[in-house]
């Protein structure tokens, strides 16, 4: 299938009509099994022959970029629950963000337009079910994908409200391997949260903090990365709405607003919260001492290692130890100011989250195999130019080249598309 497209010697010069005709072949049909191979061939053609040559093909630029954006939105929004896999969605979003109309200097409403597409894929209007692992993976992947747009001013309100209402109340029931991914994404989103959303989310974050910051030593191991994520989130949300912590943690922060609630006695909350902070600090210092001793042992072992395999193993152990030390250092830096009755919350980039020190992957682990059910080998792009004659000629040229080779290079055993929610598999996990 794919080699047939790569063998084409003439490029495509699309217009709005030809692009519309091309995208129709990746929309749902009434005969899914018969059209699966066509859809996959057209997707590969778009990926390798249209998207890479957007600067040459999409002219006039703004008009054509808007048109192809509308076509992509139709595919990923109207069919997201049935037809678009994780890999396909990422491909479409990477393409949209590369367009000039969504560039770094584009107005906020343009960036918000991209966030709304991601929100649709995350299925934030659906009732959440803990048993729906696919939805959990998709939600985490989409939240991760949205982070760069939050940084550019797009609202994270819908994501965080969904987390607050539907996810955090059942956090204990989530798969263990997903909890940390969720807390990391929540932490990285927190600096871009509006004051109103911060006030609504803070009570849930404080409850989770108390769960993972025990008041007294229990002998159980503490999940320091959970605590790091939640403390970071707590600081950034509290920085946006500081007096909300008065009734949550017993602080006495004065803003002059009725929500200060200074006439009420929250001293027991303050005592409880600061005792938890002290316990976390003791455990973090003890852990740092052990990790430092362990690092010394790793260095000795590295000097004595004879094989490359042994050195690689020790190197990984040292990296894990270094990350653990960073995590504990971050925790201590964030707990210390919270002992004050009127603390100053960290709302800048002073804290560098421990996992951000290493090279950041392009997608979270939960989406690493996204789209694995539909793979394609990248082909070379032909940059020669040959124009079609009139709109009809261009439309026929574009569609025919995308579909060429079905009889001689297409897959006869293409997977059929189911019509239900998980018909084709979204491959987010």
UniProtKB/TrEMBL annotation:
Answer whether the UniProt record assigns the keyword rRNA-binding to this protein.
no
Record's compositionally biased regions (Basic residues): 414-429
State what protein this is by name. Answer: Apoptosis inhibitor 5
Concerning Pfam families, the annotation shows:
API5
Which keywords appear in this protein's UniProt record, sorted alphabetically? Apoptosis
Signal sequence, renumbered to the chain: none
Q: Where is this region: Disordered?
A: 362-429
Q: Name one GO molecular function term.
A: mRNA binding
Source lineage: Eukaryota, Viridiplantae, Streptophyta, Embryophyta, Tracheophyta
GO BP, sorted A to Z:
regulation of programmed cell death
Which superkingdom?
Eukaryota
Q: In what ranges is there compositional bias, type Low complexity?
A: 362-379
Q: Which InterPro entries match?
A: API5
Quote the cellular component terms of the Gene Ontology held in the record. Answer: nucleus
State the organism of origin: Tetracentron sinense (Spur-leaf)
